[in-house]
């Protein structure tokens, strides 16, 4: 076996299947096809970005992967097991967790309680259902001092971290982050990017990040999936993606001929 | 929220006062009124467990109350069973109703659950009239035996059931279960993202709520010694909701005290004849307007200096 093949096998796991395999996933809302047959794979240990302008179908794709919206067609496999048709909470319990673009904390509860709820998911409750564990996760994301605060008084940047903490509490193998930097000031972006890097490295998490601004995650991801109008238009390293003609077109504008065709 | 010594002291004091009041008052009338107070307290506590914690308001709690009461009625008049069978069987029947109504409606969001509960109770009330040959129609079912012959002893028994009910529901509300129910109130989609089976917890908590409501229904049937269709009425359900609001939603013990106070208030106002309803309604409107968080639980927290 060659060295690259050995590394490849290691990354893909013993069974040789990718951690996530998305095949031909499609969703129509009335006359609008929000996602037109997306296919891609993620290897275990990868950190990949989904890039695209607003309305490209990125969040819909996340909702399709996590069961919040049922796909019309296609399949989503985590470690070879079909996720399509499972309720969202079941998908979380298979090891695929997500955050929301608009932060959605449990109102009326403390920061610690917010994380503790996710520690009670069936997949993890036998070993995680404790305040101690929830505190350890708050430690990881840098919210330790705020454990007792009601979520209503949390500044926006901390709510973003709380989203990640709640997802981490379910002990995911694959973490989907929906625009984790949205609404953050430039001074807040870098520490959060460092947190994501650290989680990727130390927890051996596979991470898929949505972002519509390329700059934010250029240094973070090893591979980028670019979307526009519900389609995957390019896949490659960040350096390749910024030079890709279809990506430039999607961001800067269309030539007249293409515009008429679309 | 931590349980403090003063809370436990207050609870013991309140229960002792309730237990001794009929002896000190030495009045059969008072015993009867207090029995009613305590039965309403069971209903209010059971409503609060499901609806107060999850925020899914149940406008047909009377469905479970009536189901429990009529179970007791049928057992007594059709099967001539030992009256003690009423208690376990009313619990089972009420829980069955919770599954039948909860399973199709609690999976959905929006007002479906509230509307379904409201209509289910109304339908049951009509059915009691339509199948009058079996149910006794407007008259209802007569001839139930008391569980305990002495009204005072029966009152103490019902009081003990109420204390156990409130204690069980409060322990559950403070456990991980209660945390999940409060999270459901916060955001169902986030609960899903946290890996929680929202539908399971909603239906299971409705079943627990129904179990205690049905038990209270059977206790009521063996107190009145008859059951009739108004048990299923929307007025029963709304009365309980008002008691919970006055007591302070989500605390279980607040609604218990709210139920006792409002039942006593209703009785005290009997002397005012037809003005009774006016005064009662005015008091409620003032409380709900000026104290939207309720009266009893917030007041106690403030008086005892709790940080909530």
Provide a compact summary of the structure.
With 262 residues, chain A is an alpha/beta fold. Chain A is built from twelve helices and ten strands.
Question: How does this structure look, described?
Answer:
Chain A: Residues 20-254 form the ABC transporter domain. Chain A: Keywords: ATP-binding, Nucleotide-binding, Transport. Chain A: One of its GO terms (molecular function) is L-phenylalanine transmembrane transporter activity. The complex is a heterodimer of chains A (262) and B (308). By secondary structure, chain A is an alpha/beta fold. Chain A folds into two domains: 3-95 and 174-261, 3-Layer(aba) Sandwich (Rossmann fold), CATH 3.40.50.300; 105-171, no CATH class. Chain A has twelve helices and ten strands. In chain A, β4 (73-78) and β5 (81-82) form a beta hairpin. Chain A is globular. Residues 1-14 and 256-262 of chain A have low confidence and may be disordered. With 308 residues, chain B is mostly helical. Chain B has one domain. In chain B, strands 1-2 form a two-stranded antiparallel sheet. Chain B is globular, with a radius of gyration of 19 Å. Chain B starts with a helix and ends in a 5-residue tail after the last helix. In chain B, 47% of the residues are buried. The model of chain B has no long low-confidence stretch (mean pLDDT 91). Classes of the chains: A alpha/beta (262), B mainly alpha (308). Chains A and B meet through α3, α4 and α7 of A and α8 and α9 of B.
State mean pLDDT of chain A (0 to 100 scale).
86
The proportion of residues forming helix of chain B, as a percent range, comes to: over 70%
Question: Rough shape of chain A?
Answer: globular
The structure class of chain A reads: alpha/beta
Strand order in the sheet with the most strands of chain A: 6-7-8-3-9-10
CATH architecture of the largest domain in chain A: 3-Layer(aba) Sandwich
Summarize the helix and strand pattern of chain B as letters: HHHHHHEHHHHEHHHH
Strand content of chain B: under 5%
The tally of strands of chain A reads: 10
| Residues in β-strands, percent of chain A | 15-25%
The largest beta-sheet of chain B arranges its strands as: 1-2
Total number of helices of chain A: 12
The helix count of chain B comes to 14
Tally of individual domains of chain A:
2
Give me the CATH fold name of the largest domain in chain A.
Rossmann fold
Low-confidence stretches of chain B: none
Q: Could you give a short account of the major beta sheet of chain B?
A: 2 strands, antiparallel
Low confidence ranges of chain A? 1-14, 256-262
- The CATH first-level class of the largest domain in chain A comes to Alpha Beta
Shape of chain B: globular
Order of helices and strands of chain A: HEEEHEEHEHHHHEHEHEEHHH
GO biological process, one term (chain A): D-alanine transmembrane transport
Organism (chain A): Chelatococcus reniformis
Domain ABC transporter (chain A): 20-254
InterPro entries (chain A): AAA+_ATPase (IPR003593), ABC_AA/LPS_Transport (IPR051120), ABC_transporter-like_ATP-bd (IPR003439), BCA_ABC_TP_C (IPR032823), P-loop_NTPase (IPR027417)
């Amino acid at each position: 076996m060659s060295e690259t093949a050995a590394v490849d096998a290691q990354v893909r796991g013993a069974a040789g299947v990718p951690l996530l395999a998305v095949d031909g996933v499609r969703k129509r809302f009335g006359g609008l096809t929000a996602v037109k047959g997306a296919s891609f794979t993620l290897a275990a240990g990868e950190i990949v970005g989904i890039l695209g302008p607003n309305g490209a179908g990125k969040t819909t794709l996340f909702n399709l992967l996590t069961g919040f919206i049922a796909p019309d067609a296609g399949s989503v496999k985590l470690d070879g097991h079909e996720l399509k048709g499972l309720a969202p909470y079941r998908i979380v319990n298979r090891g695929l967790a997500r955050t929301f673009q608009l932060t959605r904390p449990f109102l009326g509860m403390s920061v610690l309680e917010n994380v503790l709820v996710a520690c009670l998911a069936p997949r993890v409750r036998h070993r995680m259902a404790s305040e101690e564990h929830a505190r350890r996760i708050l430690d990881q994301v840098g919210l330790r001092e705020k454990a007792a605060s009601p979520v209503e008084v949390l500044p926006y940047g901390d709510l973003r971290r709380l989203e990640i903490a709640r997802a981490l509490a379910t002990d995911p193998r694959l973490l989907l982050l929906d625009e984790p930097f949205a609404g953050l000031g430039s001074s807040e972006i870098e520490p959060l990017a460092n947190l994501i890097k650290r989680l990727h490295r130390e927890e051996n998490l596979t991470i898929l990040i949505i972002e519509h601004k390329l700059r934010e995650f250029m240094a973070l991801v090893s591979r980028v999936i670019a979307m526009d109008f519900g389609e995957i238009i390019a896949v490659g390293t960040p350096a390749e993606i910024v030079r890709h003609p279809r990506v430039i077109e999607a961001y800067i504008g269309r030539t007249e001929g293409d515009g008429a065709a679309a | 929220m931590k349980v403090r010594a003063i809370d436990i002291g207050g609870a013991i004091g309140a229960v002792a006062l309730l237990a001794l009041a009929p002896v000190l008052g030495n009045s059969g009338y008072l015993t009867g009124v207090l029995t009613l107070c305590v039965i309403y307290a069971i209903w209010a506590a059971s409503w609060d467990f499901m609806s107060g914690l999850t925020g899914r308001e149940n406008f047909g709690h009377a469905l479970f109350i009536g189901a429990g009461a009529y179970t007791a009625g049928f057992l007594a008049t059709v099967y001539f069973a030992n009256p003690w069978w009423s208690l376990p069987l009313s619990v089972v029947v009420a829980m069955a109703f919770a599954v039948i109504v909860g399973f199709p409606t609690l999976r959905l969001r929006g007002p479906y659950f509230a509307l379904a509960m409201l209509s289910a109770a109304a339908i049951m009330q009509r059915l009691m009239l339509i199948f009058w040959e079996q149910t006794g129609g407007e008259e209802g079912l007569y001839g139930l035996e008391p569980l305990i012959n002495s009204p005072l002893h029966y009152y103490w028994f019902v009081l003990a059931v109420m204390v156990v009910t409130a204690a069980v529901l409060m322990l559950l509300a403070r456990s991980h279960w209660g945390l999940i129910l409060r999270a459901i109130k916060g955001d169902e989609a986030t609960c899903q993202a946290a890996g929680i089976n929202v539908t399971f917890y909603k239906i299971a908590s409705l079943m627990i709520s129904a179990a205690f409501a049905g038990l209270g229904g059977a206790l009521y049937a063996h107190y009145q010694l008859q059951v009739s269709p108004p048990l299923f009425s929307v007025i029963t359900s709304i009365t309980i909701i008002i008691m919970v609001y006055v007591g302070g939603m989500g605390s279980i013990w607040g609604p218990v005290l709210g139920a006792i106070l409002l039942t006593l208030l209703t009785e005290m106002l009997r002397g005012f004849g037809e003005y009774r309803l006016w005064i009662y309604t005015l008091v409620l409107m003032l409380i709900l307007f000026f104290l939207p968080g309720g009266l009893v639980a917030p007041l106690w927290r403030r008086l005892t200096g709790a940080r909530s």
